[in-house]
Amino acid sequence: MSAIHLHPFSMNRLVLDFARLPGRVLARLLASLAALVLLLGAGTAQAQLVVDLNEGHRQPMPIAITNFAGAQGANIAAVVRSDLASTGLFAVQDPGAFLERNPDVNVAPRFADWRVTNTVALVVGRTVVEGERMRVEFRLWDVYGETQMLGLEFNSTQDNWRRVAHKVADAIYQRLTGLSGMFDSRVVFVAESGPRTNRVKRLAVMDQDAAGPSYLTSGDEQVLNPRFNASGQQIVYTALSDRGMRLWVLDIESGRREAITGLGNMVFAPRFTPDGQGVIFSSDSSGNTDIYLRNLRTRETRRLTTTPAIDTSPDMSPDGRQVVFTSDRGGSPQIYRMNADGSAAVRLSFGSGSYSTPVWSPDGRYIAFTRQSGGRFQIGVMNPDGSGERILAESYLVEGPTWAPNGRVIMYQREAAPGAGPELWTVDVSGQNQRRLPYPAGASDPAWSPLQD
After folding, report:
1. What Cα–Cα distance (Å) separates residue 447 from each residue in 83, 199, 238?
2. Helices 161-177/73-86 angle, 10° precision
3. Mean pLDDT score of the chain, rounded to an integer?
4. Structural domains of the chain sorted by starting position, each given as residue range(s) with its CATH number in brackets
5. What is the pLDDT of residues 118-140, one digit of tens each?
6. Distances from the Cα of 2 to the Cαs of 16, 208, 308, in angstroms?
7. Global confidence as pTM
């Protein structure tokens, strides 16, 4: 990890080599920085320039992002604009309306020109190429307070400019909302092609904005239920071939994969434990479906449920102490919670219809789920004790929610009508700002990664 230097003329400027700085460390650093700036500026206009997440969708913050000077500068600015606009929290200004066309990152902007267009926050930046490396600098300004809110510098290779742009967007989002970002992350999913009678399903991964998709399997097997581990470097998934069904763990960088179950029983719905040392999954043995925990180091497998019901779709809480899952032990599929050792199971869902695919939010505050009622499917959230149920999205078919790394947005699979292909959509945890990801083909069963290291 490279050194972090404070610029001698600004409390808000840091020099970061993000290629070496883990994403989670960066998020914590930015959170501390935001708290410091708020403390130093308490009572000033600068301290008040923060997005209210409860009001953001009704009154999004007007923000202008100028084209960064230098190589790839316009492309970087375009990605930053797209990232921030996708949240629904920001009204990203049209560059064609800017009065100050090419502001210098090292000179205070002409604030009066930006107030004419009702801009509240302003981002100015530049790139500097040094051999194979590229340095990206930017500043975030409070237009009405006429003060700098944030100044950061990232260093990486030139071909990594898109990741740099996501890092810039994360830093701005962090400073203006107080939440860690979500843009420098990826999505693993099932890419679908071909006719419904002979569907090819391949494991695929792409950036959270659907850029740069790549395929991790050839399509010889039907893949299901891909899920990231806590570092975002490994994926566990189910593969069905003419030989049978198995669970596999795949290392994304090396391409190496390892089977963690043998051929025989039906195995499905795998997820890593929070520490990455185990996989919790469902298995059908002798006609009975229960939940199992596989230790990846010792290769020991423990059975956690023993009821005659169908127990499936387990997900372990972020602290590793509890598991939510789906069971029909009460007569219909509902959501239950139990201790990590399988004890003390309690029912959480009591609404009409059936419930499935529960998944904890990254901070453990909520459980997202799929609900089927009245011939429609819904995506919703509830508190860990089952209270506070809210429906966020509804359609002919929606299922498989997955959380953004900051817990603010949920992604899910959606089919608008019978025969329509599967698409990936997102919705804010408030239930607003539903958006379709621009992946150009069929896509299902998404899982969102943590912030990248």
Report:
1. 19, 21, 14
2. 40
3. 89
4. 5-177 (3.40.50.10070), 186-448 (2.120.10.30)
5. 999 999 999 999 999 999 999 99
6. 7, 27, 55
7. 0.89
